[in-house]
Every structure is written in C-alpha cells, then in structure tokens.
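ok posting inputs for the nicotinamide-adenine-dinucleotide job
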Amino acid sequence: MKAFAGNTTMNDDIRTVLQDMGPVDFKDKTALVTGGAGFLGSWICETLICQKAHVICVDNLSSGLELNIAHLSRNGNFEFIKHDITEPPHFKSKIDFVLHLASRASPFEFEEFPLEILRANTLGTANALEIAREHKAVFLFTSTSETYGNPAVVPTPESYYGYVNSIGIRGCYDESKRCGEAYVMAYRKQYGMDVRIARIFNTYGPRIRPDGIYGRAIPRFISQALRNEPITVFGSGVQTRSFCYTTDQVVGLLQLASSHKASGEVINIGNDKETTIIELAEIVKKLTGSVSKIEFHPLPQDDPAKRCPDLTKAKKILGWQPKVKLEDGLRKTIKWLSEAGVSVPEKK
Ligand SMILES: NC(=O)c1ccc[n+]([C@@H]2O[C@H](COP(=O)([O-])OP(=O)(O)OC[C@H]3O[C@@H](n4cnc5c(N)ncnc54)[C@H](O)[C@@H]3O)[C@@H](O)[C@H]2O)c1
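and the output
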C-alpha cells in the first residue's frame, strides 16, 4: 500500500515534475480533476497539491484506485468526491481549472465497457464543460492519439484528420474522444470559453495498473516478466508505439492547461521515439533479468500499425518536449511495480 502512496521513485519523480514545470504555478488556484484517482489523474492531483493549489478530485473509481490518492486525503487542500461525471455535479466554491481526465483507457476495457466509455467522453465531457462555463474556468480535455485511428501519416501532426473505424472494437473510445473534442470546440465557439485539448500518446509509469483488463502493454509485460510468465505480444510485434514517461506527460499537460498561448489549441503530448512491440518485450526482459518466453497472440481488430506524435506544435507553443528515455522510464516503472507488488489489491 505504501508503494502506491509514494516511494523513493515517486518522490524523486514528483521533484522532477515540479522542477520541469518551470514558472508554471497553480498556487492558490482551485482545480477540479475528473478521473483524479486514476494513473495520470493522481499524478496531476499530487503535483497541484505540492504547488499549494486546492484540488477537487471527482472519480467513480471504475478503473481508478483510492490507494492512488489515499496519501493526499490528509492534506486540507485536497477533497475527493466519489461521483460519476456523466451525472452533473455542482460546486459552490470558485473553480479556476477543470482538467477532464475521466475515462477508462485500456484497450481491454473497450470490449467490456463500451457504453461507459462512450458516456464518459461525450456526456461526461459536456458536464465537465458546463462546470467550466459556470465558473469561467480554463478547460483541459485529455483526448488521445486514438483519434488518428490507424494513421497514414506518421509522425502524426494535429492537422491529420484520422482514419478511424467507428463500428470496430476501438470505436467506443476513438469516436467518443473525437466527439468530446467536438464538444470542447463547440463550447469555445458558442460561449467563447478558454479550452485546450491534449492528444495524449501512450504513457506509462508508477501507478499504471498492471492487472486484468486494466493492463496496457508496458505494465502487463513487466508483471509477466517479473513472474517469468510468457510475455503476450499481439500480432508479430512489428507494430510501433511511442512511449512517454509519466513525469514528461504531467509536465506537458499542466503546461498546456496554464499557457495563454495554448487557448483554443489541440496539441499532441507524447514521446516521439518509436519502438516496436517486440523490441519493447525484449527490453523489458533484459531489464528484469527475466527468463520469460515471448508468446504471440492474434492481432486485435484495428490495432494501429504505427503510432508516433509530431511534436512540432508542443515545442513551438509550449516549449515542451519529453526528456525521459524509454529504458530509464522502464527501470523506474519496474522498480515501482516490484515494490508495489505486481498484483494490485482488489478494490472497493
Ligand atoms: N495513459 C495513456 O497512455 C493515455 C493515452 C491517451 C489518452 N489518455 C487519457 O487520459 C485520461 C486518463 O487516463 P489514465 O491512463 O490515467 O487512465 P485511468 O483508467 O488510470 O484513469 C481514468 C480515471 O477516470 C475514472 N473514470 C472513468 N469513468 C469515469 C466517470 N464516468 N466518472 C468519473 N470518473 C471516471 C476512473 O475511475 C479512473 O480513475 C483518460 O481520459 C484517457 O483516455 C491516456
């Protein structure tokens, strides 16, 4: 349990985030973080609390864990409300920022909970936007590289419209994020709101869930390798992803939320070093000293062949770029998962 709240890796990482934020400062601001008990949301909440902001974390704990924020609940500036964002919440105190992260995000969850995902990114986004409108708050939507589908242009710039199968197994996620983006831009157009959209590319690090349907490639590979179980690769493993470490992602998201120049913009936030899945499996094996075999499974429908962000806009508008190399980020994630225990305790 201690490893979820904070261990040496995570304490070092928070210091790095605070340093890399530069002049970006949320002191005395109030931020509503939807999905704040999840992997990325809990890092955002913790960073904001360290900067002496007031944080209201709204989460229905569908894929998030109370353990992720348990250590923050002792802080008087932190409030946790268990609530589903598809039902409109109301707040009396003034909110300065609405950071909307609430949505399940693992491909296995797309198959089990497509309706929840559709609602969180459509109804949930509209509800979060209404709060921002009521409070004249800055709004940040965490969209995804999945809006590009299986892109024909790689590295993919924000101007690429996407190649998405609306009726495929990823459709609930890809299309609801696209609809969420349309909501964000409609609120800007109709009400002149200060909004920003982050298109996040695959991000990993401490607090990402390794278990069951929540396990995305990196935490799944690490937990399989630590147990010397077969590492499950889908397809031949030649598909590429570009993996961003959590500290880089959190800095990018908070810079995007706070930069005046980013108002009304959609910006890719991720790492632009492409790696094949088979390379990833080999690196994880090497770093864990595992004797796991690599086991090949059929490639799921619409699995993108290549995924890599064009970061020109992030560099130009935010002056942001990722710093953490894949092997370094993996070492930290392996250390955290070894300390936290590879199986996450049953929740709720
Ligand atoms: N991590 C990535 O690689 C990645 C990539 C692209 C986009 N994103 C986006 O970033 C956001 C955070 O992702 P994450 O990786 O931290 O995932 P996560 O599953 O760890 O966090 C999502 C959080 O949202 C909560 N949630 C889900 N539906 C909700 C609802 N209806 N009401 C209230 N809370 C709800 C979950 O309980 C969880 O705590 C998501 O919107 C995701 O789509 C993440």
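notes: The longest helix spans residues 171-191. Residues 27 and 52 are 5 Å apart (CA to CA).
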